[in-house]
């Protein structure tokens, strides 16, 4: 079954207050439950802000922060299994609806 | 070389290659593989038919041969990682393809795959012309004024996305159709308008685009007889196309609707278009294409510009504004207002519009100001319109109108 990555695109610099965030996170959890029940859910996670990231380069160099400053970053993601793009799009629409954020849908090429 | 057999191969290619590609795409699940298999089959036909005689059903022979060629190719090229995928394909392929009813469905599947919203609009247009219109990459490139390698790249990328993202090869369900049909219709209409807004020098290629859009419109109307917007689009294109002979003067200058020699309109296209408009409006499910077609039908009903039922045109624009409001529709509505209630009333609506970078707004404004005798403002508006249009014919027309104003104050009365 083909897999798709749903990248949640978040604008940099604004973290919504808890009273806004909490109901959204509850809805996201419910949607992930729905995905599990439908048998499409593979993995999902929310990520810390890019400031918390560390980059390791092939030469062993370890640096603080994201590799490039950006106006948007990946705030979290879902991996799902779907028969085709239309089925994956239907789930992506649900996710973007719950979050109020754009979601990039990318087909997985290889799994290891 | 048997000339009649060779000619028949060519005719079969023209008439049936797109269907064959659509059928093979369903069987193989891959557009590139389908195109290649069909190409192979025609090459084989060129070698065999003159020698062995023409088969009883040429298109059937092509599809069967293409299917067999595809199986051969898959066996030959089979790699370890893809072996089981191909096994599944072979299983599908060996079931005999049905060449009657479902063939039509395959082309409809192809329409919806080519016009999937996950593809960019230029990619949708290129794919539709290539796979349903049967235009060559070179022809599509010429029509859209891009270098051939650019267009080839666009097609390769689009097909790769269909394959990698798994854009499905199926007709949307009834529930999905309202979301998916507009993209299909807008691709066909885009092909048509691209052809209709001909720029000098590209005339022949561009006229071919209109003909292709009409052909696609007819195909869609045949495949989706219950969708009034499909009939509406076809009617709109036919009625617009009917005016083509009168749209330019002998010298190649643009002639406005009001000034056209209506005896040069194509009455056959008008009759067909009007009949379609009547039939789809009777369903009482109006949509933007049906309404635009109805407006075109009102114009084609009038033997002279003065005989135009502008009240009817305005009522239709009101409906269109309610259904699909846009600044361009509002501008056209303002033109109808000017005809019904005078240029001052029309101008009032035009002044309220925000349509930056579109030459039609200053062009309409210029015309209304000219009719109101506000010469200097009209000249400025013509200059503004000239600055915004790249189409040589339209530029010539605007320049002529402006020069009339600066040269001859009397023409204000026109």
TrEMBL record, chain A:
Residues 14-95 form the YCII-related domain. InterPro entries: Dimeric_a/b-barrel (IPR011008), YCII (IPR005545). Pfam families: YCII. Transmembrane segments: none annotated. Coiled coil: none annotated. Belongs to the YciI family. This is Uncharacterized conserved protein. It comes from Blastococcus aurantiacus.
TrEMBL record, chain B:
Residues 180-280 form the DUF6596 domain. It comes from Blastococcus aurantiacus. GO terms for molecular function: DNA binding; sigma factor activity. Belongs to the sigma-70 factor family. ECF subfamily. The keyword Transcription applies. This is RNA polymerase, sigma subunit, ECF family. Residues 13-78 form the RNA polymerase sigma-70 region domain. The keyword Nucleotide-binding does not apply.
């Amino acid at each position: 079954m083909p897999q798709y990555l749903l990248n949640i695109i978040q604008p940099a610099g604004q973290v919504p207050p808890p009273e806004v965030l909490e109901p959204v996170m509850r809805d996201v959890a419910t949607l992930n439950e729905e995905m599990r029940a439908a048998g499409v859910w593979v993995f999902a996670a929310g990520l810390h802000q890019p400031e918390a990231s560390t980059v390791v380069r092939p030469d062993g160099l370890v640096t603080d922060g994201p590799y490039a400053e950006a106006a948007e970053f990946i705030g979290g993601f879902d991996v799902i299994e779907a028969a085709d793009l239309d089925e994956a799009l239907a789930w992506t629409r649900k996710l973007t609806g719950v979050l109020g954020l754009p979601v990039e849908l990318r087909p997985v090429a290889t799994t290891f | 070389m048997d000339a009649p057999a060779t000619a028949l191969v060519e005719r079969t290619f023209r008439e049936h290659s797109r269907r064959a590609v659509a059928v093979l795409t369903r069987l193989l699940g891959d557009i590139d593989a389908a195109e290649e298999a069909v190409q192979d089959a025609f090459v084989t036909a060129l070698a065999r038919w003159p020698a062995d005689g023409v088969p009883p059903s040429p298109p059937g022979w092509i599809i069967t041969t293409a299917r067999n060629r595809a199986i051969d190719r898959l066996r030959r090229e089979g790699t370890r990682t893809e072996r089981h995928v191909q096994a599944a394909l072979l299983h599908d392929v060996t079931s005999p393809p049905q060449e009657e009813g479902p063939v039509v469905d395959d082309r409809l599947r192809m329409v919806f795959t080519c016009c999937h919203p996950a593809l960019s609009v230029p990619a949708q247009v290129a794919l539709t012309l290539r796979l349903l219109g049967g235009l060559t990459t070179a022809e599509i490139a010429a029509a859209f004024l891009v270098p051939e390698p650019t267009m080839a790249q666009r097609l390769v990328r689009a097909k790769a996305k269909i394959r990698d993202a798994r854009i499905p090869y199926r007709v949307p369900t009834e529930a999905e159709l309202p979301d998916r049909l507009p993209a299909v219709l807008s691709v066909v209409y885009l092909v048509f308008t691209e052809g209709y807004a001909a720029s000098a020098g590209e005339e022949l290629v561009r006229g071919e685009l209109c003909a292709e859009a009409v052909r696609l419109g007819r195909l869609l109307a045949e495949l989706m007889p219950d969708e009034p917007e499909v009939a509406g689009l076809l009617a709109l294109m036919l009625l617009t196309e009917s005016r083509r002979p009168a749209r330019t003067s002998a010298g190649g200058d643009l002639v406005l609707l009001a000034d056209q020699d209506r005896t040069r309109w194509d009455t056959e296209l008008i009759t067909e278009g009007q009949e379609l408009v009547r039939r789809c409006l009777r369903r009482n499910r109006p949509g933007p294409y049906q309404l635009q077609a109805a407006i075109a039908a009102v114009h084609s009903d009038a033997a002279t510009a003065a005989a135009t039922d502008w009240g009817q045109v305005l009522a239709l624009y009101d409906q269109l504004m309610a259904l699909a409001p846009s600044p361009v529709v509002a501008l056209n509505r303002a033109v109808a207002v000017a005809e019904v209630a005078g240029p001052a009333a029309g101008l009032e609506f035009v002044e309220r519009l925000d349509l930056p970078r579109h030459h039609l707004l200053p062009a309409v404004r210029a015309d209304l100001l000219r009719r109101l005798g506000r010469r200097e403002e009209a000249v400025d508006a013509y200059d503004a319109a000239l600055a915004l249009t790249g189409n040589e014919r339209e530029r010539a027309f605007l320049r002529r109108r402006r020069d009339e104003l600066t040269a001859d104050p009397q023409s204000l009365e026109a």
